[in-house]
Design goal:
six-stranded antiparallel β-sheet; eight-stranded mixed β-sheet; 392 residues; 26 strands; mainly beta
């Protein structure tokens, strides 16, 4: 095991030294109005061990020991609910901590020590506009998964979880043992296309780790299922790694939704980037890549949300592209995109994800060093003052 860790460390070191030589990219916003955030329009927050707290700026957050991203407190996944009766609601999964519900300028954290402790949480999707996410224990960084008592307890292997925003609690829908009868298994990833769920299963033994792949389909509404009833409420079929990779594969940017290509029409397409595209209140996201074979430049990462009346994309440097109309507001610039420059983060920090609740933007940030994360939190921005008091 020590030799394996040494090999992995060496590979990471080589990659890091090589990537440092790559040319840093500055995002150009050609033919797009660019708006800067003022001090009066934003507020910083950071996570401690139990909650979030206000801070003047990220560099003042107390230093925290870096941890692998699977183990660190950080926003791991976020998305808006679909527009309609809940057009102001958005959610974020905070790894190792709980779920945040955003409602305009109101922020409510629902921590859950029992469910989130020692588990990696993420993959936020929606079923009937209800937040659903997954949890698992990482065998690579988490020693508790090989505990003898843990191996005997099937109920400890949680998988799919629903967040009840009214009761403000999270509770399991389906456990790993509902999907596979192999002991000491974890579902480490899934892809849901709205009809079926394709799952990647990791099974741990004393001699080796094995991966298997399963598709399941609920026979009744997903939210009516519980671990006690799941065995008779879902159908299972085996699949393989190729099928799972095909579900999760990155597509060429030319195949991205037209709304995304319109949104980024002023973006320099020569820059290599990867963008994760989510539908508000939707299923698993799709990934698109552009010019990633250009190894002379650093690859940029972005998250995008397509809502009914607006679309937005946030790049890790803090450049946010936005077009359309936010709830209760008119269409910005007759539908033309606007680029918002979020406050610049200190060296070693990146913006990682975002949501827009009403006219309030929430952008996750974290101190990132390859596979490790240190300090983390989120930025709150009043888009009403930032945009609608300036642009027509």
């Amino acid at each position: 095991m020590k030799k394996l860790h040494l090999i992995i460390f060496t590979v990471i070191l080589i990659i890091s030294l090589y990537s440092c030589k790559k040319q840093d990219n500055t995002i150009q916003t050609n033919n797009t109005i660019s708006v800067e955030i003022t001090k009066k329009n934003h507020t910083w927050y950071y996570f401690n061990n139990y909650t979030f707290q206000h801070i003047e700026k990220p560099q003042l957050v107390p230093a925290q020991a870096e941890k692998p991203w699977t183990e660190a407190i950080r926003i791991s996944s976020a998305n808006n609910a679909a527009e309609g009766d809940s057009d102001s609601l958005a959610y974020a999964i905070v790894n190792r901590l709980g779920v945040i519900k955003f409602n305009n300028e109101t922020i409510f954290l629902s921590p859950d020590v029992t469910l989130f402790n020692n588990r990696t949480a993420g993959n936020l999707v929606f079923s009937n506009n209800v937040p659903v996410f997954s949890v698992y224990k990482s065998s690579f960084f988490n020693d508790s998964i090989v505990d003898p008592d843990y191996k005997k307890d099937d109920s400890a292997h949680l998988f799919l979880v629903q967040f009840d925003s009214t009761a403000k609690i999270s509770y399991p829908l389906i456990n790993c043992n509902n999907i596979t009868k192999k002991r000491n298994s974890e579902i480490t990833d899934f892809f849901w296309n709205g009809f079926e769920w394709c799952c990647s299963i990791k099974t741990i033994s004393d001699t080796k780790n094995e991966f298997s792949y399963v598709i399941f389909k609920p026979q009744i509404p997903l939210l009516a299922i519980s671990p006690a009833t799941a065995d008779s409420s879902i159908t299972l079929s085996d699949t393989d790694a190729d099928f799972f990779r095909d579900c999760r594969k990155q597509l060429d940017y030319n195949y991205a939704p037209e709304r995304i290509k319109k949104l980024l029409s002023g973006f320099d397409k020569k820059l290599p980037f990867e963008i994760e595209v989510k539908n508000a209140g939707g299923t698993s996201p799709r990934y698109y890549t552009n010019n990633i074979n250009d190894t002379s430049k650093k690859e940029l990462h972005a998250k995008a949300i397509l809502s009914q009346s607006w679309s937005a994309a946030l790049f890790e440097d803090g450049t946010l592209f936005l077009e359309g109309a936010l709830p209760g507001r008119h269409i910005l610039r007759s539908g033309k995109p606007v680029a918002i420059r979020l406050p610049k983060l200190p060296t070693g920090f990146v913006y990682s994800d975002f949501v827009i609740s009403g006219t309030t933007l929430y952008a996750a940030w974290e101190e990132s060093s390859f596979y490790q994360t240190g300090r983390s939190g989120f930025l709150q921005v009043n888009l009403d003052r930032t945009l609608y008091s300036r642009l027509i």
